[in-house]
Amino acid sequence: MKNVTDSFVSLGHWPSAGSFGFNTDILATNLINLSVVLGVLVFFGKGVLSDLLDNRKQRILNTIRNSEELREGAIEQLEKARTRLRKVEMEADQFRVNGYSEIEGERLNFLNSTSKTLKQLENYKNETINFEQQRAINQVRQRVFQQALQGALGTLSSCLNNELHLRTIRANIGILGAITD
Predict the structure, then answer these.
(1) Residues 93, 87: contact at Cβ < 8 Å?
(2) By its UniProt entry, which Pfam families does this protein fall under (predicted)?
């Protein structure tokens, strides 16, 4: 190790012109080294760098082209979707209008049907009331007639004797017989 450091130390001094050695001045050597490296890179790496840039440019252009195609496809799909949406909205509006019309028609039919049913029920109620009134009147008439008949029979029985009673019965039977013939 000592030999290596000695050689750098001995080479660290600038000998007289015309000899070759290491320059230990870091600032001066970095500039020279950088310019040499850059020169070599530019000279030899120009083709590689331009190929890399051309490949990158082609990939970017292809990506842009693909993006444009996808954008155009998306715009077409969006327009188709908007057209379908308008069509579906019009159909929905039509169904809504038809639905409201049908509902209104069904409501009117229901109201008419209910009204007819109520009128029929009212008629049945009135007929039933009339029938029951007529029946009650007939029952009252029958009772009044029976009571009047019983009263008349009682009066006749007390007033008539047997002979008069038999003559009245025969006369009534004769009247009834004449009516039925």
Answers:
(1) no
(2) ATP-synt_B (PF00430)
